[in-house]
Design goal:
The protein has 8 helices and 6 strands; from the N terminus they run ααβαββαβααβααβ. With about 250 residues, it is an alpha/beta fold. The protein has one domain: 3-Layer(aba) Sandwich (Rossmann fold). A 6-stranded mixed beta sheet has the order 2-1-3-4-6-5, sandwiched between helices. α5 packs antiparallel against α8. The longest helix is centred in the first third of the chain and has 18 residues. The two termini are about 30 Å apart.
């Protein structure tokens, strides 16, 4: 039997380069990134609600400091997931808790990543992940379409929605799976300001395919299209749909 061919939607090298650059930008700005802060808040709230007090925890993606502090206050031994390939079996574990913050939306093999996450849990352990899902960044998507005119290029990657995420964690064997979402709305004065924030979060294009550069005229069309969604204060409300996935290992 031949191995299942994996999709090649994302470039690992571009994802790594973007992560390194975003970390440098956040350190220079002295901040964690509001999306990662928000996602970490969500995980702390969920963990407090289920009253799961893990002895060992693995944190993947971009956890904010207060998530780490919360777990250590629960006397958990916290392991950083830095360097772990989420699409391959983990070389560490098992853990009572595995939490992923903002990284699963750009893996080529999301079903495999969820399976590896589940298998690295100890019996009775909990997995929880939060990520940007569909629909998100609708104004940016419209702006990019306006930039390219009649020949749109692949500039933004597809995102998983609630229904697809629920099916995936069930297939991955997560026990008592729960998937829900909420919308985070952020106001921007310009397209340029949004792009700066996306780079701060490592959310520039990580697609394996390379789109042609946006022309000066295309950029002007994109900026204009973005501002067409502005409110009476001249701000554009951009949306991020935040998905939260959780489940257990029996």
């Amino acid at each position: 039997m031949q191995d299942r061919a994996l999709p090649s939607i994302f470039s690992r090298s571009r994802k790594l380069a973007g992560a390194i650059r975003s970390r440098s930008l956040r350190e220079s700005a002295g901040e964690t990134g509001y999306l990662f802060e928000h996602m970490s808040d969500e995980l702390v709230e969920r963990l407090s609600f289920v009253r799961h007090n893990p002895a060992t925890a693995l944190l993947l993606g971009h956890p904010a400091p207060h998530l780490i502090e919360y777990l250590r206050a629960q006397r958990a031994a916290v392991t950083s997931g830095s360097g772990i390939d989420e699409e391959a079996p983990y070389s560490v574990g098992p853990f009572d808790l595995i939490a992923s913050v903002g990284s699963l939306d750009t893996v080529n093999d999301l079903p495999g990543a969820l399976i590896h996450m589940h298998r690295a849990l100890a019996p009775g352990g909990m997995a929880i992940a939060t990520l940007v899902g569909a629909p998100s960044l609708l104004n940016l998507r419209r702006a990019m379409l306006a930039a390219d005119g009649e020949r749109p290029a692949a500039r933004m990657h597809p995102l998983v929605d609630v229904r697809a995420a629920a099916e995936l964690i069930q297939r991955a064997g997560w026990h008592s799976p729960v998937v829900d979402s909420h919308t985070l709305r952020v106001s921007y004065p310009s397209l340029d300001r949004l792009v700066v924030d996306l780079r701060l979060h490592g959310m520039a294009s990580r697609l394996a395919s390379t789109a042609p550069p946006v022309t000066r005229q295309g950029l002007e069309r994109a900026q204009q299209a973005f501002l067409e969604a502005a409110d009476s204060d001249g701000k554009v409300i951009e949306t991020f749909e935040i998905l939260t996935l959780s489940g257990w290992r029996r």
